[in-house]
């Protein structure tokens, strides 16, 4: 895969972000780095970067798909109810102890996603 200036700008915007970004947020942030970006270009590059394994999609319930750099390991997210920002949490996973456990009825846990909701420090203090 060729590293175009648009792809480099998108990857830089994701690298500098505190959490996963929507395509519109990426258009704004990567566009500040590389001015010749349009939303269709962002979507095309996201698909290419995801297919190449350089980024991953983050799915939050009832939310637009967001993206972050791949290779960050298992982690969870916090979504602010007020500003709607999503932030990466670096704390120890509270539910990792369930991985590989067989639950009643024979259900085996193979993975999980956890998103916490509340107010970020900036919104809480406003």
Descriptive notes:
- This protein has 126 residues and is an alpha+beta fold.
- The protein folds into two domains: 5-69, Orthogonal Bundle (Arc Repressor Mutant, subunit A); 76-125, Dna Ligase, domain 1, CATH 3.30.1490.
- 33% of the residues lie in helices and 17% in strands.
- The protein is built from four helices and five strands; from the N terminus they run αααβββββα.
- It has helices at residues 5-16, 23-33, 39-51, 121-125; strands at residues 55-58, 66-69, 76-80, 86-89, 115-118.
- The strands form two sheets. It has a three-stranded mixed sheet, with no helix packed on it. The chain has a two-stranded antiparallel ribbon with strand order 1-2.
- β3 (76-80) and β4 form a beta hairpin.
- α1 crosses α2 (23-33) and α2 packs across α3 (39-51).
- The longest helix has 13 residues, at 39-51.
- The chain is globular and about 55 Å long.
- The mean pLDDT is 89.
